[in-house]
Design goal:
The protein has helices spanning 2-7, 31-42, 78-86, 100-111, 170-182, and strands spanning 15-18, 21-24, 27-30, 46-49, 53-58, 61-67, 73-75, 115-118, 131-132, 140-144, 187-191. The strands form four sheets. A four-stranded mixed beta sheet has the order 7-6-5-9, with helices on one face. Strands 1-2-3 form a three-stranded antiparallel beta sheet. The protein is built from five helices and eleven strands, in the order αβββαββββααβββαβ.
Length: 208
């Protein structure tokens, strides 16, 4: 049959009707089968990352989704994560690549505001694209950025009014910010002393 189709110039065409069948990329399929599949794909709702959801990983914990606004982190089992990272076209309602438990999990992530449903596959932004940090997971940093304070509390272990713990230079502060960004730290609390008395403390806010 293939030879007959070749003689008629039918094989090699993208889609050609042959009686009750279609040849699509060299494969013979019934028109009903092809139309049914295309119709399902056309009406599928895809599970896509919301804008603030970032794909991240750390040593020992390489499969995480981070909320770029709050810094909250959710760790995902590797099988599902690989689909989200490398094969997002598999993630749609009724997909044969998802079992019932996986689709239910994706629905829960939609309810949690991590994913959203769209009528087409979403291309990840540069910020959302996967990034693996070369260190163990660090949820937050507590940074005493100055030893000075405008209060004179008797219980203060830093003797802050006298500034005995000293200050970081602006360059040193920016280096610390860079180190935290490279380590994937999303939450930072600033203290001292009193952080707001530090002169010239205009630190850039970075999230990666």
């Amino acid at each position: 049959m293939a030879d007959e189709f070749a003689e008629e110039g039918l094989i090699g065409q993208t889609v050609e009707e042959v009686g009750g069948f279609e040849i699509s990329d060299g494969m013979l399929q019934s028109r009903g089968e092809t139309a049914g599949r295309n119709d399902a794909e056309r009406h599928a709702m895809y599970f896509c990352l919301k804008e603030q959801s970032l794909l991240r990983g750390w040593e020992k914990l390489p499969t995480a989704i981070v909320d770029g606004r709050s810094g909250d982190t959710l760790f995902i089992e590797p099988g599902m994560y690989s689909k989200m990272r490398d094969m997002p076209w598999m993630l749609f309602e009724g997909s044969p690549f998802l079992d019932e438990a996986q689709e239910e999990f994706l629905d829960q992530m939609v309810e949690a505001g991590i994913l959203e449903k769209r009528d087409e596959v979403q291309k990840l932004t540069g910020q959302q694209a996967y990034r693996l940090y070369p260190n163990r997971y660090l949820k937050a940093a507590h940074w005493a950025m100055t030893g000075r304070c405008n209060c004179r509390c008797r219980h203060c272990y830093m003797s802050a009014p006298n500034g005995q713990a000293g200050d970081y230079s602006h360059k040193e502060c920016m280096d610390i910010v860079d180190q935290m960004e490279r380590a994937g730290i999303m939450q930072v609390s600033l203290t001292g002393g009193e952080a707001l008395v530090r002169g010239g403390a205009s630190l850039r806010s970075r999230r990666g």
